[in-house]
Amino acid sequence: MIEVRELRKSFGATVAVDGVSFEVGRGETFGLLGPNGAGKTTTISMLVGVLRPDGGTIHVNGAAKPTEASARLAVGVAPQSLSLYEELSAKENLTFFARLYQLSGAKLAERVSWALDFAELNDRAKDRVKTFSGGMKRRLNLAVALVHDPQVLFLDEPTVGVDPQSRNHIFSRVEELKSLGRTIIYTTHYMEEAQRLCDRVAIMDRGQILDLDRVDALIERHGGRSVVKAELVRPPADASMLPVPLDGLSLRFESERPLEEVARLSTAGVAFQTLEVARPDLETVFLTLTGRSLRD
Amino acid sequence: MRTVLTMAVKDLRLMSRDWLGLFFIIGFPILIALFFGSMYGSMGGKSASLRVAVVDEDGSDISERFVANLKETGNVELEQLARDEALDRVRRGQLVGLIALPNGFGKTAGIPWMESPAIEIGVDPSRRAESGMLEGLVMQSAGKLMMVRFQDPATMRDFVRQGRDELAKSDDVAPLLKPVLLEMMDSLDEFMESWEQVEAAESKSAKSNDAKNSDEGDDMPGFQLARIETIDVTRQFPKDSAEALVTKLRSKWDISFPQAMIWGILACAAGFAITIVRERKQGTFLRLQVAPVSRAQVLAGKAMACFIAILSVIAIMVALGTCLGMRPESPLLLAVAAVCIAFAFAGIMMLMSVIGKSEEAVSGAAWGANMLMAMFGGGMIPLVFMPSFMKSLSDFSPAKWTVLALEGSIWRGFTFAEMLTPCAVLAAVGAVCLALGGLVLSRVND
After folding, report:
1. What is the C-alpha to C-alpha distance for residues B306 and A147, in angstroms, rounded to an integer?
2. Cα–Cα distances in Å, from A186 out to A192, B164, B286?
């Protein structure tokens, strides 16, 4: 569905995207995970034909260029910034953008109605966008990208600045789109979003893809072992059964099979006051790959 | 085209919801038009009575009576002058016109069966609207002369005697008929004599009342009360002088409305220029870019919205001006001017939108440019009253050509050929600005 080869883009001396390559299959949800300034939005901008790459090739939906009409019609974009006309109502925004995709008549009405339903804004359809909350605007921003029923959807940080309720709404809507077989490119710097929604994730930093695979494969490859942290009720009679020496009553150790290890200690009579098992995640993967946190 | 129209409608809808912007586009120009129109009121307004010169070259009782009749109408202020002085003062715009009564006027004026006397009328070309009224007053006064004639038996007796003498001398009348006619003329003479005696006994006031109540002769069909001849009055002001131009004004709104329209037009251009940057900054331009719409269509949509808005401003202002008494001389030329103006400022709008990267920058720069254009283009000081150095500078302001095109069709009385210059300049400005602005915008990457 999407094929990107050796994509490059610089702004003056700043290299924004440096030899990015990946493929996204039909119906796949592909995540671009990286901190702000990693090059995610620049990559998306080139994929949708807004920016001209300095080098590399892009194929979207069979079109050799993303600016071709067939590619444009097949693609929907929900930009990171809220791209809506605040003085128009939700319905007017949807109708206007749908018309740009050559929708008219009954089909137009049907799609606008569907999009309002999708964004759960039916009761506010005629209200001006400027009166909406941040979450409502974010939902409408996503609905506008979908109003022409595109096969490929680019979602650029769709949950930035939204309340938890709207975030959950967006998650459930993206999952609904996945189930409908839409191809989704999802950029985020929230690892839990990528972990929950994406079939495969590319870890980006400083314009490059550091690794790309399924989430579990990435964790397995770069996440390392789980960390077990515990506070004991009292020191065990036989301290040698512990994997590491106690620090007072605190115990901290790494393990590839943390639950099995905890079960073994419990059976041996170790009494836990508190227990925490931290499994490796994409944050750990990113830390391992870049030496810094996603939110640095 | 459908896409362009869709985008234009969206922009016009957005414009209509921006109340402050709308005020500057239409409310502010209306206030300017009314304010300055009231200020210019004394220039284009007309006094209740016409100031007219009378040149009485006949100097007879009848010609004096004619002048008195004219005064009695109450619609003219008369000044008795010599022909040259009268002409001079009309040419200088000090008098609306002149009425000349040539030698011999009194011989035949007011006598239905004799040839109508000539009355010469000359009217200031810029006061053509009043010439009809003046002719009407002249005819009314000439009609009253006829009643004077009939009410004066002595005069009528003279005519009867004169006729009898001519009949007696004539050989063309049949011998049998001649004595009959002579006898009839004698009887008429006797009747006139007795009437003269009765009239002499009546009071002067009674005579006066009778004269005032006898207007029937004015409308008597079948003969001419007076033969009006036109005197060519060519104004002596230099053709393009302010004085010469001011004489063409027919309403106090003639200057203020074109002057005010330029503010609305400039507000449209600045407003739409700002919306282009706003779209770029708020991200909606990105949505337009990823849609199956070319940049040319996006820009054409903006230009069309601006074009329609400007046409609407002009139409609203013209309609309002017309309600107040402004009378565009050539609606067709006004329409041509409006189209050229809208095209020019749609292009200027496009160029304005690329002079800054933020809304604030474009807004500031656009209004700065607008102020300059208005200052030197007739938005502040009407073109007519500009000092010469400003007039020279104004050639560089599209606002000047806008005002000129509007004034040319509204009151300057431009011919089609004269309208070509401002319209061609505006069309050229529009084309160049559209091309430049469009080119820069098409290269902008967000």
Report:
1. 28
2. 13, 121, 18
To probe the interface with A, which of B288, B290, B297 has the most A CB atoms within 10 Å?
B290
A292 is a domain residue: no
- Alpha-carbon dihedral A111, A115, A117, A121, rounded to 10 degrees: -130
For residue A296, give the DSSP letter: -
**A259 in the same domain as A117:** no
The reply to whether residue B293 touches residue A88, judged by beta carbons under 8 angstroms, is no
Contact by Cβ (8 Å): B36, B255 = yes
What pTM was computed for the model? Answer: 0.65
Residues A193, A233: one domain?
no
B154 is written with which tokens?
Answer: 């002595």
Q: Could you tell me which chain B residue has the CA closest to the CA of A49?
A: B290
Burial degree of A165 (CB within 10 A; 0-12, 13-18, 19+): exposed
> Is there a single domain that holds both residue A170 and residue A32?
yes
Q: Is the ipTM of this complex over 0.85?
A: no
Between A167-181, A250-264, B327-341, B375-389, the lowest mean confidence (pLDDT) is in B375-389
φ, ψ for residue B51 (rounded to 5)?
-90, 115
Task: Quote the domain boundaries for residue A229.
Answer: 225-279
Whole-angstrom Cα distance, residue B138 to residue B159?
A: 25
Residue A285 lies in a domain: no
| Interchain pair A49, B289: CB under 8 A | yes
Question: Does residue A97 sit at the B interface (CB-CB below 8 Å)?
Answer: yes
Residues A129, A246: one domain?
no
For residues A271 and A242, state if they share a domain.
yes
Indicate yes or no: CB of A77 within 8 angstroms of CB of B445. Answer: no
What pLDDT sits at residue B46? 45
